[in-house]
Amino acid sequence: MSEGVMQADQPPVIEAAPAGDLFAKFDGVIAMREGLLKAGQEDPFSLVMEQVLSPTRAICNGRETILLGTYNYMGMTFDPDVIAAGKQALADFGTGTTGSRVLNGTYQGHRECEDALREFYGMDHAMVFSTGYQANLGIISTIAGKGDYIVLDIDSHASIWDGCALGNAEVVPFRHNDIDAMEKRLKRIPEGAGKLVILEGVYSMLGDIAPLKEMVAIARKHGAMVLVDEAHSMGFIGENGRGVAEDAGVMDDVDFIIGTFSKSVGTVGGFCVSNHPKFEIMRLVCRPYVFTASLPPSVVATAATSIRKLMDGADKRAHLWKNSRRLHGGLKALGFELGTAKALSAIVAVIMPDLEKGAAMWQALLHEGLYVNLARPPATPANMTLLRCSLCAEHSDAEVETILGMFERAGKAVGII
Amino acid sequence: MDRAETDRRIREQLEPFNSKRIAVAEGTSFAGDLEFDSLTVMDFVAAIEDEFDIIISMNQQAEIETWAQLVDAVHAMRKDGA
Q1: Could you read off the pLDDT of A343-353 as tens digits, one per residue?
Q2: Can you give the pLDDT at residue A325?
Q3: Greater model confidence, A332 or B19
Q4: Which chain A residue's Cα is nearest to B51?
Q5: How far is B78 from chain A (nearest CA, A)?
Q6: Nearest CB to B59 within list A154, A170, A181
Q7: What ipTM, to 2 d.p.?
Q8: Facing residue for B57 by CB, picked from A8, A172, A382
Q9: Do B55 and A188 count as a contact with CB atoms less than 8 A apart?
Q10: Which residue from A62, A132, A255, A302 has the highest number of Cβ atoms inside 10 Å of its Cβ?
Q11: Common-topology check for domains A35-74+314-414 and A79-311
């Protein structure tokens, strides 16, 4: 599940349009958006940040705003070493590669970035994609083809669903985090068919985590390969920040870890790390890797520098966890209903009674000077309206207290607490 | 094991999901008549899968729009000698 604000992660079945206008199929979404704006709402999906002051502050629509809805978990976007590496690469290697990784698009920096990932995860192979979306799209569609079976959590991210569809494998979803439901489906797969289980470490809508210890063991027992998307855990979950799989002690039983540079790493790009002995062949057979331009030199330079700094990020990691626990505990004490019983990740999801109150609360917080993510059906599990807060290691203790004060005033004004 | 028996057993599974007590005939559609959303579809499919010990993949679900198509598909997949 993700930030598809106007649509579900699972691709919708689109009805045929009446003869003529191919855009007729979007009338429902157009009406939904107009309805929301007519209610006098500041458009939650057209926010512009005119100036970004730091990983935690920006000028949004003219107001200085605390950012509590970015995925800048480790606050690396303004790290002086990271910025210096990017500037140097821009000066030395130019603005872009203008080519595919398999043609003229592999520079020294791309190799160094993959080296950093291999070291970070302690794995044999690393492959960098131009976005995290493409990493899931490419790996899943390439390894699970027609006749293979993919067993996946129903709350999976859009990039996972799209990878499944592109590869033409048989897709078998199970209820979110339901270990028994997953095993039942694995048992029923015909003898001899290829099997891939896809899980996420942290599910980004509620900020809950998968029971990877149990699920990975069951997947292995049934002869399935396992892919875990650790986009929302890299850098701060697990002893070395490798993610939920590390924390659960199952790194050796996971075949593929998918990740992104657009969250804790602080730039853009995606990757897959693996110990599969034949993994390098993916560079030749994975279409979303081959048929796109590689990342600009400055991006891979900032990513590599950031990843290496995250290896030694124990203090920042500890502060991020402190922030997440304080915000979770504070909001709970104020009387808000939260998506998880305790803080399990850097995402704290506040459950709103309905879309109308959720939108009003979002606007009240913005006027207080706080940006959070408004998530609404159908992008959310069980059609909930959520205010999703994602913390940063650079939020100070005082900032977290300020945020709690803003939530208290806005919550009372809107009548939620 | 005839088709009528498959139909009866799927009807039992439909019970908890048919809150508006819509009369179901061969041509009844899940999206249109029964107004199933994606979450309801998942739970209903899971109930049928457990009842018959089968898999109805999403690829197969995409081909099923009406009650008759569902009964036919499940009947064809039954492992107990339908």
Answers
A1: 999 999 999 99
A2: 98
A3: A332
A4: A184
A5: 12
A6: A170
A7: 0.92
A8: A172
A9: yes
A10: A302
A11: no
Q: Which has the minimum average pLDDT: A31-35, A49-53, A261-265?
A: A31-35
B46 and A13 within 8 Å at the Cβ level: the answer is: no
Q: State the DSSP string of B40-75.
A: HHHHHHHHHHHHHT----HHHHTT--BHHHHHHHHH
What is the band of B82 on the pLDDT scale with cuts at 50, 70, 90? very low
Q: Can you give the residue ranges of every domain in chain A?
A: 35-74+314-414, 79-311
Q: For residue A189, list chain B residues with Cβ-Cβ distance below 8 A.
A: 55
Answer yes or no: are the C-beta atoms of B45 and B61 closer than 8 Å. yes
Q: Map out the domains of chain B as residue ranges.
A: 3-77
Q: How far is A191 from chain B (nearest CA, A)?
A: 13
Task: Identify the closest residue of chain B to A12 by CA–CA distance.
Answer: B38
Which helix (H) or strand (E) is A259 found in, with range?
Answer: strand A256-260
| Residue B15 confidence class, pLDDT cut points 50, 70, 90 | very high
Q: Which CATH superfamily is domain A35-74+314-414 in?
A: Aspartate Aminotransferase, domain 1 (3.90.1150.10)
**CB burial readout A351-372, b (16+ within 10 A) else e:** bbeebeebbbbbbbbbebebbb
pLDDT of residue A1: 47
- Please answer whether residues A172 and A150 qualify as being in contact, where contact means their C-beta atoms are separated by less than 8 angstroms: yes
Give the pLDDT of residue B44. 96
Q: Minimal Cα–Cα distance from A162 to chain B, Å?
A: 13
- B57–A149 CB contact, under 8 Å: yes
CATH number of the domain located at residue range(s) B3-77 in this protein: 1.10.1200.10
Q: Which residue has the higher pLDDT, A42 or A23?
A: A23
Contacts of B16 (CB under 8 A, 6+ apart): B47
So which residues of A are the catalytic ones?
204, 232, 263
Answer yes or no: do B59 and A171 touch at CB < 8 A.
yes
Residue A39: which pLDDT band, with cuts at 50, 70 and 90? confident
Dihedral sign from CA coordinates of A352, A358, A364, A370? positive
What CATH fold (topology level) applies to the domain A79-311?
Aspartate Aminotransferase; domain 2 (3.40.640)
Q: What residue in B sits closest to A150 (Cα-Cα)?
A: B57
Based on the number of CB atoms within 10 Å of its own CB, is B8 exposed (0-12), middle (13-18) or buried (19 or more)?
exposed
The pLDDT of residue B60: 95
Nearest by Cα to B43 from A151, A174, A13: A174
Q: Closest-CA residue in chain B for A15?
A: B31
**pLDDT band of A44, cuts 50, 70, 90:** low
